[in-house]
TrEMBL record:
The lineage of its organism: Bacteria, Bacillati, Actinomycetota, Actinomycetes, Kitasatosporales. It is found in: Endomembrane system. InterPro entries: HTTM-like (IPR011020), Sporulation_SdpB (IPR023894), Sporulation_signal_mat (IPR052964). SMART domains: HTTM. It is a multi-pass membrane protein. This is Sporulation-delaying protein SdpB family protein. Keywords: Membrane, Transmembrane, Transmembrane helix. Residues 6-283 form the HTTM-like domain. It comes from the Bacteria. The chain crosses the membrane at residues 217-240, 252-279.
Amino acid sequence: MRQRAFPLPWAAGYGLARTLLALGTLGTLAFSDAATLFREVATVGRYPLCQGVNSGGAFCLVSSQHYDTMRWICCLVLVVAASGWRPRLTAIPHAYVAFSVFTGISISDGGDQITWILTLLIAMVAIGDKRRWHWQPSQPLEEPASRQRNLSALLGTSAIIMARVQMALLYFQSCVAKLPHAEWADGTALYYWINNYAFGAPYWLRPALDIIVDNPVGVAVITWGPLVLEIALAAALLMPQRVRWMLLPAGILFHLSIAVVMGLWSFAIAMWAGLLLLLSPLGHDPDFKALLRRTRRHSVAEQPEVDAQSRERVPA
């Protein structure tokens, strides 16, 4: 019977995405108290809405007096998940916290929804990860590998592929949904967003951005530029890997600018994790130790004269 090989999913690349997703949710919970996260919304009711599936969330298991206690328990789970320790043990608790935040808080945004979906898919990868830390290089399957191990590898790879398809569809929908609106078609949409009272640019950034948005060419470039980038990211799976690596810094910078201008930091961190899954090759295993060694060698090479002078001062 003909066999087909595929990259193992348990690599440091997907671990970095796990860490980013955990840090995004951790920032939401750690820097917002219960009174901010859980409040009444007009025509909807007071959150958390413990109805149906949502009643299984962590904040529906305690009374309102213990929301802050549960919030810090969730923060502890996220810290452990972000550290990369024992992925197979922390994957399900991490996904449960992401679900509880998305369904429980009254100010959830697209970043919380993306985090919940990606965390659930990544949990399918992590439950088969036997490494102690998800930063460790991937380990080849033992020969002959057990049937259970092969199925775990297939499930993990399939989950990452689903996450990549999810991100591609997300960027496609984001681009196409803007096109029917006249402000995006004529290149003026960012003028209104930047000057929006609720989501507009902070006052310290307004003078610099006003120079751009008050110019017809400038506002058209920053309005149509995201559309071009989003459709390129939607088609990234059809592109060579070298082109995907070129799109990665562009996508990171794009979401960083959204975070700085609109303050959507948890959304940006979730999208960075999604970009890593979308644009990195399957089984990508960056050598973090080599990067650290290269950084140390570079820092030592910059100070040869200082070291020589210090040795000369040592008495014989």
